[in-house]
Design goal:
Layout (H helix, E strand, L loop, with lengths): L12 E8 L8 E8 L2 E10 L2 E11 L2 H5 L1 E8 L6 E5 L3 E5 H6 L9 E9 L26 E8 L2 H7 L6 E2 L3 E3 L2 E8 L6 H9 L11 E6 L9 E11 L3 E2 L3 E5 L5 E5 L12 E12 L4 H5 L1
């Protein structure tokens, strides 16, 4: 039995990093355990073919107050352990193993690096003995950088194309511009929206049908409503593709949070076929909430 944390001053946040040799697992496996605010939490990993499910669950609620107020975050890091490539704020995550391999998240032994965080949302609960912490953090008004860039590199485009199936993608490392997190999704075998993808499955269209490479610039909304953001951006390509796109302008909002750019046909006949994609982005406008909406 684990010890029960004191109600008056429990830990309000705990982050742990664990290496998960998912290639060795054949069934659901508990890979980490923690006693947080008097409750026992498990991290479970469940391989399901080419998919992997990561779940963080409370298995022993000794303190229902803190259990109901605990937020769970799951991140899958790249091989360096420095960058978050996949994340979820729901306590569970279903990810594609091929996409993780293409995004440099799987090491040579088939292992993943998973970071999970438990934190107590003090605003969502009234504690019988007062707040979790008496300290108060005052917000600091920092002006974020409005210009930034991101680079995605693969040493072999043909290998990337062979690794991923139709409509699967590789992810770039995230980058921050204008106080917003952005990232790129690279579809070497073509991209179509979900409704078009479903119609293709219904008519049994050949998966080997040649598709142009697509790059998507995505605003990471983190499952939360965001203000409309207007950005100007362009792409530069080196390697099997060698040119620079025109500058484009797009307004990102909750219903339109990504924009697609299709490359011209890419030559993969060369023995040495790297591909480097650079995105240069400038945030030129962020919606200001109206007085009425801010009062709602």
């Amino acid at each position: 039995m684990g010890t029960t944390a004191s109600r008056s001053s429990p830990a309000v946040k705990n982050t742990r990093i664990v290496t998960v040799p998912v290639a060795k697992y054949l069934e659901m496996t508990t890979v980490d355990t923690i006693d947080f605010c008097g409750n026992l939490w498990h991290v479970n990993v469940h391989p399901m073919g080419h998919l992997v499910c990561v779940m963080v669950t409370c298995v022993d609620k000794q303190d229902p107050y803190s259990a109901s107020a605990t937020d769970v975050s799951i991140e899958i890091l790249d091989e360096t352990g420095q960058h978050t490539m996949f994340h979820s704020e729901y306590g569970h995550m279903l990810v594609n193993m091929r996409e993780m391999e293409a995004s440099s998240c799987v090491d040579g032994d088939g292992a993943l690096t998973v970071r999970w965080t438990l934190s107590v949302n003090q605003q969502s609960i009234e504690w019988p003995l007062g707040n979790l912490s008496a300290s108060k953090v005052e917000p600091v008004d920092l002006e974020p950088a409005m210009v930034g860039n991101c680079t995605f590199t693969t040493n072999s485009f043909s290998k990337l194309k062979a690794t991923l199936r139709s409509f699967e993608c590789a992810y770039s490392k995230p980058f921050s511009v204008g106080g917003i997190v952005w990232f790129l999704k690279i579809y070497p075998n073509g991209y179509r929206p979900d409704e078009e993808r479903m119609s293709m499955l219904l008519v049994h269209e050949d998966e080997d049908h040649e598709e142009r490479v697509s790059v998507l610039l995505v605003r990471d909304d983190d499952d939360q409503p965001q203000r409309a953001t207007t950005a100007q951006f362009n792409f530069e390509f080196d390697g099997v593709a060698n040119y620079e796109s025109i500058k484009m302008t797009h307004t990102f909002n909750d219903a339109n949070y990504e924009v697609e750019y299709k490359l011209p046909p890419v030559n993969t006949a060369a023995e040495h076929d790297p591909l480097i994609i650079r995105c240069r982005l400038t945030v030129i406008g962020i919606e200001t909430p109206s007085l009425l909406s801010s009062m709602l």
